Amino acid sequence: MKVDSQLDKVLGCVVGASIGDSIGGPLEMATAERVRTELNGADWIDDMRPYRRSASPHGVWVDNAPKGTGTDDTRYNQIFLESVIKHRGKINAHILAEEYIERYRHVERYYPKYITLAREQLRPWYSRCSGYLGIPSDEHSDIPVHVLDSDCFWGGFPAIVGLLVLSSAGLLWAGEPQQAYEKTFELAFCDLGYAKDATAMLATMIAMSVEGQLSPREIVQRAPDINPYAAILNGFTGRQMTKRLEHLFELADGVESDRMLMNVLARECEHLHVFDPVDVLCVPMTIIYRTNGHPMRSILMACNHRILTPDGKLLKLRDIDCVGYVTGALVGAMRGLSALPDEWVSAVLKANRTVYGFDLVASAENFYATVFNE
Length: 374
Known about the structure:
Order of helices and strands: HHHHHHHHHHHHHHHHEEHHH
CATH superfamily: ADP-ribosylation/Crystallin J1
Shape: globular
């Protein structure tokens, strides 16, 4: 495979994730009333738009941010890219935990314009990473280190933390999906329970995408076969991340339109927490199965993931910035930056440079030079 094609997919993965994040961000968790107000009576997001919301630690860091601005998802990806570049590709869970602690302890150095917001975003990470490294946390001096490094963290729930923090991890093992799974499973110290499997499965798909031998539909179909820890992960209850996919793919084949599929997926996911990795990974996989990785269709579908009333009307949107982010990372890696809409790419690059001061293309290019040219 040509090197420039690989670079295109690395860029696509990084920028595509931020595109999905920024399209979903303005209306994540929004009620039907707010959605219709923002969309002039419509209930379907069909384009990127500016924010009409205040700054918050896990959202955007400026009031009424311009369209294309990423939330904490994009900022987490930037931390990962910076860490890989700094350590010349030799990343591991220990190093990643140290990088999060470093940013919390010296927040004014890394985020001089947003000290308070950055500290609040990183506060739980400081304690979680301290626990993992076996050192006390002065944020929770009354809690033993072994508790901070236990399944008590994040409320004991297998959430989507790793899907956000390690969305680019599969790029480290392009063309080696099983190694991508195993290494990312190890990297995902922040995950609990089956969330580790979700994060590792995302990495396998990214690794297969950069290799370029399979179509997007083939990638999402074959990803469940990469299961090196089958004896443990299949266990007594079955593998959480894959036992639903065959059924969801059948549903995708049986509907007439993209909007109909999103209504079907709303019913399939209504019992799941919005931060459940089964939701935030399986929905993008099902969308990509239907569209064969069409970037614009896939991202817009993901950013319309919803909760319905009993009679089938919109009640509210789900965690659509995260679902859009994961979908964008996947279709970006599958199709490359060159396949993403120019207007979206330009808006994302400009907004994140203006608001946060980092250049996604420069970060991705430096990552590529570090990892692929070693």
